[in-house]
């Protein structure tokens, strides 16, 4: 993945980076492929699927955490940053994954979870021993309020107070997630030095970069009630860049729920010395209730969705860089959330891919999205495994919600929708494991599985492979200027990308019914059919009838 240093002749003076034309594939190791029948996906399982990923054509794997962990939050609670969880394998397995992936031109991104550790991390075990322990300041401790209660009203993202009393030492520690995920104190330079040392240790092993978990929280100013975007956030990121990856050619992507178009330029502006790009979530939260968040969702609204995505295309048009994604391990399945998994699973999954992959930015595919995997219709709370879902269940039932209503919400939004096992075949347990999977397989694996997808040239898989390849072939897809059309149209998503006399025109219906589209004259074009999900379309003109979830892109030259 060499860096090409020449500059683009056009307005886009971005120095080229290998990750501009790359596509990332996220693996949630626990649910990807189990090699030894214990029901838990593992690193040898991932290695056995590299041929599959090479066929898809991806350049980078983002591995959700594989480090030693009590798995309170499936590995986002790390007890040893420099070893591999035994259920996932060994360091030797990891090195083998690195080399075999590299042979196929695939780099590995590790998940950097340094807002917090596990309560079983050696630092925390030390820290809680006494108030004057040398590691005490690695975490955030506060005295009880006058009445003995929590020091402040801060709430955990998983529900309940963000403070837990450590009985032995009589102080509360901060945890913005579960009580088993104590927050690190980034104000302590020793913490930062330890994190950088650990990052360099992995970088020296040859990884391709980091995805940074809730990185917008590390500058928190607890006493001011500030969690995201604290005063020193960008200082820390610049320091991290200088001390670790800044002089290496890697990809770094921050998970930043709080990012705005202007702060995105702070994170990813080319002269900032921070990150390659961040994940923004406006198209995700656009569906959430203002008060109740994701547990009470709003109906699908294409106009709002287009506005959110278009806003970000414009925000980072000249500087900074976008990450493009529909799903991840925390979010519902793309086709269930934004498409129609009941009536048009194939066509809507392809349309979602087309719309996303032809925008400007680096596309991320979440495992299973490339075969159109859907949300899971669990019927009982006992089937869920996710700590957030189980916490929210307890709190909601206490508040008077019925189990039935909670399950309805969870069916739509629980993080477990994304965490059911990867569907490899129509065999037992979808080919994920020869044993009992840690979480149930989605019953639709008989129809939706990788084996069937590979065999069918019209599958969602081959559609993704095509889009990934197109990005490699056409600079206009990587760097072209984005312009949206028909912003107020409730059912079609239309945009163009232009670069040096080349233009890609993307038209996509999000309607389950055929619809007639009057093409605005400024959009009229004739050229090469690039990608489609019904039949090839090379001319855009006049009155066009679009089939349910039909989409296509036309490339025009000169
Ligand atoms: O999933 C969420 C919203 O749908 C959030 O509650 C989620 O916790 C938030 O997106 C932060 O996510 C990241 O950090 C968490 C971890 O549980 C998530 O899996 C991770 O992606 C704590 O490390
Ligand atoms: Ca296993």
Summary keywords:
binds calcium ion, Immunoglobulin-like, 5-stranded antiparallel beta sheet, TIM Barrel, binds 6-O-alpha-D-glucopyranosyl-D-fructose, Oligo-1,6-glucosidase, domain 2, disordered N terminus, 24 strands, globular, alpha/beta, 16 helices, 18% strand, 558 residues
Task: Give structural notes.
By secondary structure, this protein is α/β, with parallel strands linked by helices. The protein folds into 3 domains: 19-116 and 189-464, TIM Barrel, CATH 3.20.20.80; 122-174, Oligo-1,6-glucosidase, Domain 2 (Oligo-1,6-glucosidase, domain 2); 481-557, Sandwich (Immunoglobulin-like). Helices cover 27% and strands 18% of the residues. It has helices at residues 43-48, 50-56, 91-103, 122-127, 189-205, 233-243, 261-268, 282-285, 302-315, 334-337, 345-357, 387-398, 403-413, 450-455, 460-473, 475-479, and strands spanning 24-27, 60-63, 67-68, 80-84, 107-112, 141-142, 163-166, 171-174, 209-212, 251-255, 277-279, 288-289, 293-297, 323-324, 362-366, 481-485, 492-499, 502-509, 515-518, 525-526, 528-532, 539-540, 543-546, 551-557. The strands form 7 sheets. Strands 11-10-9-5-2-1-15-14 form an 8-stranded parallel sheet. Strand 17 and strand 18 (502-509) form a beta hairpin. Helix 11 runs parallel beside helix 15 (460-473). The longest helix has 17 residues, at 189-205. The protein is globular and about 75 Å long. The model is unreliable at 1-11 (pLDDT under 50). Residues 34-36, 38, 40, 42 line the site of calcium ion.
């Amino acid at each position: 993945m060499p860096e090409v240093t020449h500059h683009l002749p056009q307005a886009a003076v971005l120095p080229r980076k290998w990750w501009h034309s790359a596509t990332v594939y996220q693996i949630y190791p626990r649910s990807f492929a189990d090699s030894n029948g214990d029901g838990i996906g593992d690193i040898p399982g991932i290695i056995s699927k590299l041929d599959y990923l090479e066929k898809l054509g991806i350049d980078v794997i983002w591995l959700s955490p594989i480090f030693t962990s009590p798995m309170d939050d499936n590995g986002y609670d790390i007890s040893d940053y420099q070893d591999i969880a035994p259920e996932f394998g060994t360091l030797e397995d990891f090195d083998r994954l690195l080399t075999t992936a590299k042979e196929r031109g695939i780099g590995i991104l590790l998940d950097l979870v340094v807002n917090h550790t596990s309560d079983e991390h050696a630092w925390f075990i030390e820290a809680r021993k006494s108030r004057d322990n040398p590691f005490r300041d690695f975490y955030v401790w506060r005295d009880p309020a006058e009445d003995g209660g929590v020091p402040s009203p801060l709430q955990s993202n998983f529900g309940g107070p963000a403070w837990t009393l450590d009985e032995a030492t009589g102080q509360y520690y901060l945890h913005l997630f579960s009580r088993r995920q104590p927050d690190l104190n980034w104000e302590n330079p020793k913490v930062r030095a330890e994190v950088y040392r650990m990052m360099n240790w992995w970088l020296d092993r040859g990884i391709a970069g980091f995805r940074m978990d809730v990185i917008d929280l590390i500058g928190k100013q607890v006493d001011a009630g500030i969690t995201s975007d604290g005063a020193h956030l960008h200082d820390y990121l610049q320091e991290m860049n200088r001390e670790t990856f800044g002089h290496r050619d890697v990809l770094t992507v921050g998970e930043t729920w709080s990012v705005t178009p202007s702060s995105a330029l702070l994170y990813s502006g080319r002269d900032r010395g921070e990150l390659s790009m961040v994940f923004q979530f406006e198209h995700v939260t656009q569906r959430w209730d203002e008060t109740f968040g994701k547990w009470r969702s709003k109906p699908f609204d294409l106009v709002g969705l287009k506005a959110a995505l278009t806003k970000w295309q414009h925000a980072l048009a000249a500087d900074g860089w976008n990450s493009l994604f529909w799903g991840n391990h925390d979010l519902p399945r793309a086709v269930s959330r934004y498409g129609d998994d009941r009536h048009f699973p194939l066509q809507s999954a392809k349309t979602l891919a087309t719309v996303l992959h032809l925008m400007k930015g680096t596309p991320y595919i979440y495992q299973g999205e490339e075969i159109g995997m859907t949300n899971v219709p669990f019927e009982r709370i006992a089937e869920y495994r996710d700590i957030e879902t189980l916490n929210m269940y307890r709190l909601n039932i206490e508040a008077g919600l019925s189990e039935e209503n909670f399950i309805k919400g969870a069916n739509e939004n629980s993080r477990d929708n994304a965490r059911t096992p990867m569907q490899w075949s129509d065999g037992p347990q979808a080919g994920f494991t020869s044993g009992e999977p840690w979480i149930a397989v989605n019953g639709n694996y008989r129809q939706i599985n990788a084996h069937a997808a590979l065999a069918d040239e019209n599958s969602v898989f081959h559609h993704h492979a095509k889009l990934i390849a197109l990005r490699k072939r056409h600079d206009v897809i990587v760097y072209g200027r984005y312009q949206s059309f028909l912003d107020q149209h409730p059912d079609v998503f239309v945009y163009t990308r232009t670069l040096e006399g080349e233009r890609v025109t993307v038209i996509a219906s999000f309607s389950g019914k055929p619809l007639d589209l009057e093409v605005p004259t400024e959009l009229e074009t004739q050229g090469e059919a690039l990608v489609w999900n019904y039949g090839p379309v090379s001319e855009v003109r006049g009155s066009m009838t679009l089939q349910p979830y039909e989409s296509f892109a036309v490339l025009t030259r000169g």
